[in-house]
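Narrative of activities, Objective 1.

The group set out to show that a structural description can be obtained from nothing but a protein's sequence at a throughput compatible with the screening campaign. Below is one input-output pair from the validation batch, recorded exactly as produced.
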Amino acid sequence: MPLKEIIAGAEAMNLRIDQFFLRAFPALSRSRCREFLASSLVLVNGRRARKGTRVQPGDRVAFDEAVLGSFFADFAPPASPASIPPPVLYRDDALLAVDKPPGIDCAPLKAADTGTLLSVAIALEPRLSQVVGWRQRESGLVYRIDRDVSGVVLFAVTRQSFLALASASRKDEIGKTYLAVVENRPGRKLDRAGSISASDPQLQGKSRRVVFRKLAYHPGRSLEEVRVKLRGGARGRRTYFAQVEPLRHAGPLTLVRVRITRAFRHQIRSFLAMLGHPVVGDGMYGSRAEEGTGVMLHCWKVQCPHPASGKTLDIESRPERIVGLAEAFRGPEVLR
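Output recorded for this entry:
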């Protein structure tokens, strides 16, 4: 396999070879970087790099991309995916989409964590272990959804596919539609569609509960309208968006459709709670439902450009656990 070559930029002024790789690949840990350099062929201007080799602007740094990718996946998949068998929703040479059940993490936090969705995905598609992702131990994972949330999760099977989908994500070209069942307080039913914009997320307490210091609700406005209206907001401040549409009511509960693109940790859960309508079963954000209900939030549909062809893909997961909570939530006219 030919080596991948990177031309060092102006920022690579007299950097040690390990510092160069750590800057080029932020998800690579220092220890794993050292292991990679000690065990793999790396060339600088055609000569083998040693421990103290320095990189200068314009230098040609060549390395085996597949070998480097293996150092981002320092965990082992289970011997068989049978222990956690998520249905495959879509699969080809560039992309894998699986239906995540609630109760498992998308990716491991430490090397010993093998009971995650990513471990199972690697067992299904071993090439994933060589794909450098957003962070260490997130090989090919395009986005996370919370442990107690279910639904569509995407994995890029190759580095090229990951880069294409990462670019699409940054451009808000990956749309996700969730279904949630929320609680209504007496006299405060969620009965009008609108969009939410928020900024300045804060993590609170040991649970790392998310609160957005600045949040606004825009009744009757679509996601696209609000995004255009707020484009070019305060410098350096990222704004997060969601479109909320109530679909059906069942006593104190409401079935809600939520659309987002990129998201912050717990974004939908925090948004709905801050509107006064926590997701059923989400005790962290104020749900009063009895324990055992589970967090009633599901990534129902994902729309994205195919990383190779650019053709728009629509991938859908069946939301039985959400609509099964009440008879009023069932029916094809609800899930249009």
